[in-house]
C-alpha cells in the first residue's frame, strides 16, 4: 500500500479536485481525517461523486466539525478538542489518498497542525494554485516539508499555464512536478478521468 497526502499552499487551491484525480488514477481509497464545515456534503462526498471506478472505498472523517473555519476553532465551537493521536489511518491493502485541511500549518489544537498528520512514508502532493504570492507560499510549504525530513514530495500546479511561475518554483525546490490542471469550465467524472489517465504513469 502506498499513501498519498494531498496538501495545499493555502485554502481553496484545489486539493479536493486533485484528491479525486489521484484517487481515480490509482483506483485508491480516500480519507479526509478532519472536515470543518459542510459535514453532510463535504469533500468526501464531492470526491465520491467524481469517481468512476468501483474499487475505491471512502472512509469517514475522524472529526466532522460543523463550522467552516480552522479546525482548532471549529472544534472549540463544537465543545471538543482534536486529539491527533486518535486520528488513525484506515486499514486497507489498497493505495490510500489522504486529503488535508488547508495548508500544512493549519492548527488542529493548541500544539498540533496538519503537518503532524503526515508520515514519512507518505508521498506528499503539494497543490500550488496560481495567484499573486503563490510562489512564496509554495516555496515556504516545500521548505517546511524538507526541514521536517520529508523526501517524497511532488508539486501539482492548478491553473492555466504560467511558465515563469512554474519554472522558478521547479528550479528552486528541485522536486518533481506531477503536472498541471487547467482552469476548466467544470469538473465532472469525464474530466476527472481524463486527468487521471494523464497523471497515472507518473504516480
Automatic annotation (TrEMBL):
Keywords assigned by UniProt, alphabetized: ATP-binding, Biotin biosynthesis, Cytoplasm, Ligase, Magnesium, Metal-binding, Nucleotide-binding
Amino-acid biosynthesis recorded as keyword: no
Positions of Mg(2+) binding: 16, 43, 99
Subcellular localization(s) per the UniProt record: Cytoplasm
One term of GO molecular function: dethiobiotin synthase activity
Pathway assignment: Cofactor biosynthesis; biotin biosynthesis; biotin from 7,8-diaminononanoate: step 1/2
Residues bound to ATP: 12-17, 43, 99-102
Enzyme class: ligase
UniProt-listed Enzyme Commission number(s): 6.3.3.3
Catalytic reaction list: (7R,8S)-7,8-diammoniononanoate + CO2 + ATP = (4R,5S)-dethiobiotin + ADP + phosphate + 3 H(+)
Requisite cofactors: Mg(2+)
Name of a matching Pfam family: AAA_26
Purpose: Catalyzes a mechanistically unusual reaction, the ATP-dependent insertion of CO2 between the N7 and N8 nitrogen atoms of 7,8-diaminopelargonic acid (DAPA, also called 7,8-diammoniononanoate) to form a ureido ring.
PANTHER family according to UniProt: DETHIOBIOTIN SYNTHETASE
Self-association state and partner proteins as the record states: Homodimer.
Protein name per UniProt: ATP-dependent dethiobiotin synthetase BioD
Organism, as annotated: Microcosmobacter mediterraneus
Lineage: Bacteria, Pseudomonadati, Bacteroidota, Flavobacteriia, Flavobacteriales
